[in-house]
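[Discussion] Sanity-checking designs against the backbone

I'm trying to build intuition for which residues belong where. Below is a structure token string of 393 positions. I'd appreciate it if someone posts a full sequence so I can compare it with mine line by line.
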């Protein structure tokens, strides 16, 4: 019985194997479809090129208010840190004494005028008498000398009056310009101006305000070359606009213009000192702020821009992945420029009709086919959440 079962098992096994081999012959390998990636042409639009720098704000005017006459401080006529207009009285220094000295000088001047009037009348009488030979020439000479001395004394009295008036004016310390006044450094009743001018406070003008920064030697040459190309005289570079932003602000909301360009480049730093003048009516900028500065110096009508996330880098430099007409991925070396509204300017290496891989970067392998899904240029501007493409091997 066992001998008859063995051949039957062999026959069944062989039949099963034949069926399996037949089934394998019917299946064939089907390659997977190309991976889908999103592509878009470069954004083409006009851009403005800027010089970027960092700088510090500085007051356009700052003056130490001092006591120029000696006396007791009679009053402080402002609040510490207040904004005052030009001519506003800030301190008063014992004016009564200097008012009396002015009146005294004025009285002396009146007396000198009377003396001159009398001496002039006597001189004229002596001249008539000499002509009639009623008096000697020496009498006329004496009258002439008296008249000249009286005139000199009048001049001296007039000068003394002016000096007294100036000193009397110094008792009233006023704001020389619109600005913010610091806290007072002396107290009411304190004797000031004894041995030397006593500092009372400081006033600072905040509108407009300076922004000091430095520009590299290369950027200076770029600006000069661009001005020469556009036919702009070098002296008119000072009319270039300046845009400023604080560290806590978005963009560059403060607008002004160049005010000063240094005549020489600093040999130790290779930079040129530059200053901007910024209107500051709301006093948002204070002296000493650290600010971001940019100066627009050129415009380009048809620049090519791509999302920054579409740009990769390797040892050879920056590149983008481009899908050619055969839907094969190519690695294209590019020269990049500045960011402009979230997009990176491409200086060279791209054409306007190139299809840039903007999403699915990890699935785009140079030399392999992909299934490109065309996007609009505006959609390509949106930042991608995927990582930047790895360098091609």
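Best answer:
Here's mine. Compare freely.
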């Amino acid at each position: 019985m066992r001998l008859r079962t063995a051949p039957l098992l062999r026959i069944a096994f062989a039949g099963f194997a034949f069926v399996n081999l037949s089934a394998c012959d019917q299946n064939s390998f089907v390659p997977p479809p190309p991976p889908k990636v999103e592509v878009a042409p470069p954004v083409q639009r006009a851009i403005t090129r800027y010089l970027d720098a960092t700088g510090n704000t500085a007051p356009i005017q700052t003056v130490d208010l001092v006591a120029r006459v000696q006396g007791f401080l009679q009053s402080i006529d402002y609040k510490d840190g207040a904004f005052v207009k030009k001519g506003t009285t800030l301190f008063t220094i014992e004016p009564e004494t200097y008012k009396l000295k002015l009146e005294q000088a004025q009285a002396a001047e009146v007396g000198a005028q009377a003396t001159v009037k009398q001496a002039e009348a006597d001189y004229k009488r002596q001249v008539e008498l000499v002509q009639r030979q009623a008096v000697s020439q020496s009498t006329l000479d004496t009258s002439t000398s008296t008249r000249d001395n009286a005139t000199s004394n009048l001049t001296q009295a007039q000068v003394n009056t002016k000096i007294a008036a100036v000193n009397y004016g110094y008792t009233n310390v006023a704001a020389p310009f619109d600005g913010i006044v610091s806290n007072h450094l002396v107290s009411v009743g304190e004797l000031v101006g004894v041995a030397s001018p006593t500092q009372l406070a400081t006033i600072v003008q905040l509108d407009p305000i300076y922004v000091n920064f430095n520009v590299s030697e290369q950027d200076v040459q770029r600006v000069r070359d661009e001005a020469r190309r556009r036919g702009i005289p070098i002296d008119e570079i000072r009319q270039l606009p300046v845009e400023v932003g604080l560290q806590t602000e978005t963009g560059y909301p403060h607008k002004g213009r160049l005010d000063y360009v240094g005549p020489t480049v600093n040999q130790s730093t290779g930079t040129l000192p530059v200053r901007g003048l910024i209107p500051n009516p709301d006093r948002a900028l204070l002296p000493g702020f650290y600010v971001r500065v940019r100066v627009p110096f050129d415009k380009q009508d048809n620049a090519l821009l791509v999302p920054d996330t579409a740009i990769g880098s390797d040892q050879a430099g920056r590149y983008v992945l481009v899908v050619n007409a055969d839907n094969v991925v190519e690695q294209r070396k590019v020269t990049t420029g500045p960011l402009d509204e979230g997009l990176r300017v491409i200086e060279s290496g791209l054409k306007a009709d190139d299809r840039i891989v903007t999403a699915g970067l990890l699935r785009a392998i140079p030399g392999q086919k992909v299934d490109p899904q065309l996007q609009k240029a505006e959609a390509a501007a949106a930042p991608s959440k995927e990582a930047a493409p790895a360098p091609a091997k």
